Amino acid sequence: MILFLYLIILVFGFIIPLLFAIYGVFCIIVDFTGAPYVPTSQKILEEILEGAKLKKGQQWLELGSGDGRATRLAVRRYGVAGTGIDIHIPLIFYSRLLARLQNLKNIHFRIQNLFSTDLRNYDVIFMFLLPVTLKKLCAKLEKECSKGTLVISHGFRILGFEKYLVIVQKRKLFPTYFYKL
Ligand SMILES: C[S@@+](CC[C@H](N)C(=O)[O-])C[C@H]1O[C@@H](n2cnc3c(N)ncnc32)[C@H](O)[C@@H]1O
């Protein structure tokens, strides 16, 4: 009985608050590295993926994948080979857990900074990042993406990418910009 009580105190008094604290620290860190963690709603993701006209077997990359919901939906519904990267370590572990629970194949979540991610060999790149981050990323996208890559920026336009703009999904808050390189 005493052991059980100690276990309860350990879990609720120490382990769970510690996990929340680690999660919170990462949420603060990512505010300064690219974008705060703000997940895209399921309904909007469905609109975006429909607009992307994804095909089975295409290579999909999500820069700053959060809880992996966009990548998981793209893999589940359209059969793409999905990769999500994020520097928020708890969210990457959570994404892996959800992908495993959904029994998804051809899906990978990596702990990685988007500025050091190799962007070559992807058919579709999806992101929801701050304008300042998109501005810094612009030259890298242009240099590394193959011709024909579809770059989808949710929320904000990529300055300097106007010549590649093909579609805008308009919304009151957070439109989505589709660029074809
Ligand atoms: C606005 S959220 C978008 C999450 C997800 N893409 C979605 O649409 O639901 C931005 C994500 O970018 C991640 N992030 C911020 N800076 C990053 C960086 N330098 N490298 C990788 N990921 C980063 C954050 O941790 C966060 O999960």
Domains counted in the coordinates: how many? 2
Helix segment count?
5
How does the helix and strand content classify structurally?
Answer: alpha/beta
Give the CATH level 1 class of the largest domain.
Alpha Beta
Poorly predicted ranges: none
Q: Give the number of DSSP strands.
A: 7
Largest sheet: 7 strands, mixed
Ligand names: S-adenosylmethionine
CATH structural fold name of the largest domain: Rossmann fold
DSSP strand (E) fraction?
15-25%
What is the CA-atom radius of gyration, in angstroms? 18 Å
| Fraction of residues in helix | 40-55%
Side by side, the strands of the main sheet go 3-2-1-4-5-7-6
Per CATH, the architecture of the largest domain is 3-Layer(aba) Sandwich
- Write down the overall mean pLDDT: 93
Describe this structure in words.
With 181 residues, this protein is an alpha/beta fold. Helix content is 44%, strand content 19%. It contains five helices and seven strands, in the order ααβαβαββαβββ. It has a seven-stranded mixed beta sheet, covered by helices on one side. Strand 1, helix 3 and strand 2 form a beta-alpha-beta unit. The longest helix is centred in the N-terminal third of the chain and has 32 residues, at 2-33. The N and C termini lie far apart (65 Å). The protein binds S-adenosylmethionine. The site of S-adenosylmethionine (SAM) has 23 residues, from helix 1, helix 3 and strand 2. Keywords: Membrane, Methyltransferase, S-adenosyl-L-methionine, Transferase, Transmembrane, Transmembrane helix. Residues 55-138 form the Methyltransferase domain.
